[in-house]
Amino acid sequence: MDVDAPRGLLRFFEELEDPRLDRTKLHALSDILFIALCAVICGADTWTEVEWFGHTKEEWLRRFLPLANGIPSHDTFGRVFSRLNPEQLERCFLNWMAALAQVSQGRLIAIDGKTIRRSFDQADDRLAIHMVSAWCETNHLVLGQVATNQKSNEITAIPRLLELLNIEDAAVTIDAMGCQKAIAGQIVQQNGDYVLAVKENQPALYEVIQGTFDELTGPGIPGVSCDFHEDTDAGHGRIETRRIWTTGWTDWWKDRADWAGLKSFVCVESLRQIKDHTSTERRYFISSIEAPRARVMLGHVRGHWGVENKLLSGGAQIRPPRGA
What we know:
alpha+beta, nine-stranded mixed beta sheet, elongated
């Protein structure tokens, strides 16, 4: 590891104010932050485990940190983090995550929510915590999270999460709960593109897109073209074929202007065959991507599942130690 690496990491936390009085500082805030971040990344789940990590890795840590008074105690870690400004800490952390995420052509940011298991406490009359997360599929990286106490509050949580993110030149995918005109407008205003799932909770919009693809994939519409792609997965006794159609034919729709930047409709059809049973399902999307290639759009749709399969299942999420 480069000896300058901690300096590069900690520059994202330079604006974080130290809440302690000068006469009470036995350990540099930079030492406390760096040890805690490394410990949590390595799986530490309590402040005691953070301290234990520091002691077991002290020789290695001294290659990068002064550690004038050795490794802080678990009480020191807990006390300092409890007094840090949470908004400042969140901003610094998100700036670090954004720097780690590659800003490249085709970058996908999936936003989705899930209720955290065991966060409901009936005895204390505490509602379950619902977390809305942004997942960068390219880097398998959490870019930000906002907590709400109800799934219905996703509509208000998503704009707050978007404000924390740099989504320039990225495709932002959101499920049907986030298919809102204001959210689409905010994504376009922040120089990103959106791919929003459409379901029956938007009946008028759903009927428009459903009817469009019923014609395009059936008898066809003279003079109107759409791009098409198909792929097949097989395994464990199941065969699944995915077909996707995309069209930029949206200018005919009288309410198109209500959706900022709307340029395309998307239809994904899934055919599943398990032994003798076959099922077919169609899902619809709107997007601000102009004339999208069907194969690329299918990658966006499938990539959105990463926020469910790789993040919200618990495998990739970095959690603060208990007691933070």
